[in-house]
Every structure is written in C-alpha cells, then in structure tokens.
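Review form for a predicted model. The reviewer records the input and the model, then writes brief findings.
Reviewer: anonymous (R2)
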Amino acid sequence: MKAIELIEALGKKLGTSSQAELADVLGVTMGTLFNWRNRDEDLSPLQVASALAKSRSAAVRQAQLETIQPIVEFYRIDKCPTKREAGWQVFDDGEDANLYARGLKAELQKSYGIYIFYDSRGHALYVGKGREQTIWKEMNLAFNRKRDVQTIALVRHPERNQEFKPGYEKLRQPKDTQLELVDLACYFSAYQVDGGMIDDLEALMVRGFANNLLNVRMETFAHTRDSK
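Model under review:
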C-alpha cells in the first residue's frame, strides 16, 4: 500500500476535513504527514501498524483531555421567577443581568453533562445530568422538583397581615414540610461531559456519596444496564 492511499483512506474513514485535522487525529506533525504523502513507495506492515498505534494514542489522549470540561464551579444561586412565573430559575438572565451571567447561561444552554447543587456551606445536595436536554434546562427543572427526602420539620408562620403572638401565648407546632431544591440550594457547578460518559459519571457521583445527597434514584453503570 502506498502512503498516499493510506492517508486518503484514513481521512475518509475518520471524517477529517483538512490535512491539519487529520494530522491532529493521527497524533503526528504536519511535516510527518507531508513526508508520508510524498513517499512513492509501499509502506511496510510495521509502518502501517505504527500509524494505527499513533492514531489510537491520539484518540486516547483526546478522550482523557476532553471527556470532562468544567463550565462553572460554585456559582452563587440568585433565584428569580421564570418569565411566565410558573417556577424559579437559578439566576436572572434578563436584560439587567451582567455579561458574565448572560454568557454563562448561553454556555449552559448549549452544553450537556453533569451539574451539582450545594447548600450554604458548600456541601453537595444533589447531582443531576443533562443528556437528552441541555444542562440549563435540566438544572432548572430539578431546581423546582419536590422530593420526599427533602422533608424537614418547620413551623408555619402566617404570611398575611396578622398580629404577632409570642409562642407562650400561641404555640405553633413544627410539622413535616416538603421542600424543593429552590429552598435549599445556594451554589451550583456544571461540567460539560462527553455524551458516552454522562450516565456513568452521574452514577459514580451518586453512588459515591449515596448517604450525603438528596438523590432518590441510585443510578447504575452502563455495563450493568446493558446486561439486564
């Protein structure tokens, strides 16, 4: 096989659009790729194997570097009503929002991966994923969702205009109250994750902190799901 034939076949198979992109995928320099193209001789089995090995190493390196990419970490939640006031969203993205907030929303709207909610002390409350829908959409859905595990004893105080009476005159009993993450979460982090790793990364985090998080569902790993 001529070197030029191998290069053209690899370019088509790997779907690269330029020599520079092909060189990057193969893990070689443009100079090396240029030398290969100009060889008017057959490649030996060892040279073909070397090219494939370099391509594999480049793919592994790329996967290691790009599988998880932080978008934002420990961003303070400043809840505001949604546009139709049907619920809450984690921060204001309207006309009065600053460039940083608007840029963050734009990034979350186009990203898929994992998000984490934290309480006021920075302790993780909940881990979720955006796989079918973007992180922005999934995160705000979870923000408003009620769960049985988010029940704590609270006293209900009047919200209407009513005269205050101290507890020794009118004792108000603590009652179990079901809360939403909107009542508990103070910060969030978000990470863009390769699509094939989103489920397993979520499963790892939920299972690794099973006694600390408010996640109800104990996620499983891909190979376990596939074997059922």
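Findings: DSSP finds nine helices and eight strands in the chain.
Further findings: The longest strand covers residues 68-76.
Recommendation: see findings above.
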